[in-house]
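User: Quick sanity check before I run a bigger batch. Here is a single chain. Can you write out its predicted 3D structure?
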Amino acid sequence: MSERFDDGMKTRRSVLGDAHVDRAEANKTAFDEPFQTFITEGAWGSVWSRDNITKRERSMITLALLAALGQWDEVAMHTRATANTGATPDDVREAMMHVAVYAGVPAANHALKIIKQTYKEMGVEI
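Assistant: Done. Predicted structure follows.
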């Protein structure tokens, strides 16, 4: 694998946690291996590994984009990742306020429902 892949895997593990990445790797098949390599190198090795902004800030941006796009499973996954990125519930709430203004109240409302449930499952009081 490439250096970008190695950097991406390190960052991916730091954000999503070893358990999540281990499950994804265990479920990887020959069919989706090129896709998994692509996101590890592209998303995690290129964007998430940059040091221009913090993982906390990237976490808030990512959650806002996922909510705006209606990617509910990813909203839950990246809410769980806030335990590793330093984004607080207050940060996440503020990101959803931006979603409401710029992408629509229904998207933010549904995302908040998922975020609240995910925090509850994580044992995070909000």
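The chain has two domains: 3-47, 55-122.

User: Great, the batch can go ahead then.
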